[in-house]
Amino acid sequence: MSLNFKGHVAIVTGAGQGIGLEICRELAANGCSVILNDVDATLTQEASVAINEKYGSCYGLAGDAADIEFIQQMVDTAVLKFGKLTIAIANAGITLFGDFFEYKPDAFFKVLHTNLGGSFFLAQAAAKQMQQQQSGGSILFMSSVTGHQAHKNLAAYGMTKAALEMLAKNLVIELSPCNINVNAIAPGATMTERTAEDKDYAKTWSHITPMGRPAYPSDIANAALFMISEKSRHITGQSLVIDGGWTSISPSPYED
Question: At what angle do helices 18-29 and 217-227 cross, to 10 degrees?
Fold first, then answer.
């Protein structure tokens, strides 16, 4: 099944590397114009240049994806550079591990600000633009298997990811009349630059994942592209888990 994004314009946050970057690559490869965002200016520049050299139509915009003014700047830039906005992917998020009994308020509110605030207000700003265009669109939230199954030292993070799935469901009420579908995907263990820093990550998750390996960014990107494509226009308010079957049995990576 081929997916054609010619004529579409997307914002993807937290896309300097890993899953977000792979989503941007695949979108651009399939004809989409992309606003690539990351809080790291160097990563933003390097990623957008690499995509432009191969596919074109990618504009890098570094900044905090949870900042309200910057969120509006991303939407305005999409319209200025490419004429419209049809896709918004709230991929930016932070993970702050910590024991529940010792978890600090500043860490708690930082996780909420980025994971929930950034996603909520990107969806709001993007939906307003799509409503104004009267052309519909797609919004995608990045959840996690930790929003489905308990994971040690990730109470705050898992809470935000479960909340994003409820947000996708709730927004069906407001966004369906605008012909905007809204969904979430929930990746499991995925090999990225960050997780690769753990030398045991691939071995551990290969052992406890029924399909025998952790995901790669392409596994997640393939699911993301389907959920925002014309092939899935009648899917809305849903959450798709991509974890090689881990949530079906849920063994802990901390167990021997």
Answer: 50
Tokens at 185, concatenated: 């995907």
CATH ID of 9-244, from 2.70.70.10, 3.40.50.720, 3.40.50.360, 3.90.550.10: 3.40.50.720
The residue written with tokens 């990550």 in the block is 201
- The model scores a pTM over 0.85: yes
Residues that are catalytic: 143, 157, 161
How many residues make up the chain in this entry?
Answer: 256
Beta strands in the chain (DSSP E): 9-12, 33-38, 58-62, 87-90, 137-142, 180-187, 239-242
Give residue-wise pLDDT tens across range 23-64.
Answer: 999 999 999 999 999 999 999 999 999 999 999 899 999 999
Residues 6+ apart with CB under 8 A from 85: 9, 10, 11, 75, 78, 79, 126, 129, 130, 133, 137
Structural Rg of the chain based on CA atoms: 17
**Helices and strands counted in the chain (H then E):** 9, 7
Closest CA to 123 of 64, 68, 187, 57: 68
Q: pLDDT tens digits for 72-111?
A: 999 999 999 999 999 999 999 999 999 999 999 999 999 9
